[in-house]
Amino acid sequence: MKNAGIYIRVSTEHQVYEGYSVSAQKNNLVKFAKNNDFNIYSIYSDEGISGKNVEDRPEIKRLINDIECGVIEVVLIYKFDRLTRNISDTEDFIKLIQKYDIVIYTLSDGEVDVSTPQGRFVTRLKGAVAQLEREQTSERIKFAFIQKVKDGYSLCSATTCYGYDRNKHQKIMTVNYEEAKVVMRIFKMYLNNYTFTEIARVLNDENISTKMFGRELKVRDKVSKKVIGSRIVNSIWQPKMIRLILSNSTYIGKVRYGIGTKHYFEVDGLHEAIIDKDIWDSVQEKMSKIRHISHTKLPYDDVYYCGTLVCGICGRKLTTSRTLGYLRKDGVRKVFNGYRCVNREKGFCSAIGMSHYKVENVFLKYLENVEEFDSDVIDRLVVDDNNNLLDEEIFDIKKVIKKTKNKLKQVMNMFMVNAIDYEQFSYMTNELKKKIDSFKNKLDELQLKYKSVSFINKDNISRSISEHWQYLTNREKLFFLTEFVEEIIVINHSKIKTNNDVEILDVKFYNNSN
Fold it and tell me: Is-catalytic flag, 11?
C-alpha cells in the first residue's frame, strides 16, 4: 500500500461561505484513501490560513518535508486551490512532483498530471486561476471596507476604540460614557502639560481599566496555529496608548481608512463625537511640536566612505554595494565593496557605481595635492594625553548598561512568577532593550574616539594626512572621515560598470576652507 498524506486547508471565507470545513474535507478524503487502498501516513491541516504562500503554512511545510524524506508517495487534496493560490508556488509543486515522483489526487478534478506539456499547462492554468480568485477576493474585501468607511461606519472589528461600544451586528458605535469621561480627561491633562508617561501613571494609580483588561483571549500554538488554551488580559495604560488616543480622530466624529498608506482618507462618521473640535485642534498643534529624534548608524568599517560620498551628477549621497567574488583556497569568499547612487535605480540619475579601491586611490591623490591642512584641523586631531574625562564617561555608560541588563533580568523573573502579564513583560522588555542599544551605540562612538588617541599624537603625527593614512585601521579612517570631512563629491566618468574612471570633484572639510 502506498503512503498517502491528506492535506487540508481552510481559510475563513471558504469555511463560512463555501462549506469547505475541516471535518468535511477530512471525511471525504479519508473515504477516498480507503476506497483506493492508500495507507494514510498523516493528515496535514492548515486552519484559517490563506493559500497565498507556503511560508505562512506550517503544515504544508511539514508535508513537503515528508515528501523530500521519501515517506509520502501520494498527496490527497479536496481541490487544487487548497494546495496553493500562488503561481510561483504552483511551479515549485510541479518540480516537487517530478523530482520525487509523487502523485497528487484532487476530489474535484482527479489526478494532477505534470508528465506531459499539456498536463503542466493545465496545472499552471489552475494555479493562475486560483491566484486570480485570491486577488479578486482581496480586492472585493478592500473595496467593501472603503465603501463602508465612506458611508460613515467604523471598521472596528475585534476591539472598539476606548470610549465606545459596538455590540454584535450593530453597525454604529455608541458612546460608553464612563470611558468617554476618561478620554476627555486625557485630552485635558495633556493640554495641562502632562506627558504621555505621566497621564498613564495617573490612570494606573487610580486603577482605571483599559479596554482589553479582563478580556479572555485565545492562545494559539506558534507552529500549528491551533487554539491550545486561553488567557486573561491584565493590560495597563502605556504612554503609547495615550498617544494613540490623543491622535485618534474617531473622538471628533471621524472614520478613517488606510492609515499610513497612499489610500489613506478620513470622512465624517455616523457615531457621536466625544471631544470638542477646538480641544482636538489644540492637542494636535501641541503634538506637532514634539521633536522626533532618529539616530543615524555609523557605516561598517570596511566601507568607511559611506556617508561622505556625494554623487557628482545629482547630488544624492551614495550608498554601499557589495559583490561576492571568487572562493579562495582558505574557503573564504572574496567580497568587493563599492558605492552607488540610489537615484540611478529610480531612473533619476545616470551615475555609474564605483569600487571602494578606486575611491581610496583618488582620495589619497586628492590629499597629496593639498599641501597642508589648516592648523585648526591638526589641533582637532591632536588629543591630550590626559584622557581621564573620556575614561570616566565610558565607565559611566558601561555602568548604566550593566544596571539596565539587571533590570531586564528582574522583568523576566517577574513574568516567570506571574507578577506581570505578557503585554507588560513585552513592553518593558522592548523599552529596556532600546535603552541598552542606545547606550551601546554611544559607547561605540566614545571607544572609537578613545582608540584614535593611539595614533593621534604630537610626537609622531605628520602634517600630511595622506602620508599617515596608510598606517590607520579602517575604524580610524572612519573616525577621521565622520569627524572632519563633510562631503566628498565624486563622479565615475566611465559608461561601463566594469570600468572605474573615478574623479573627486571637491572635498569639503568641517570648519576648514580646503
Answer: yes
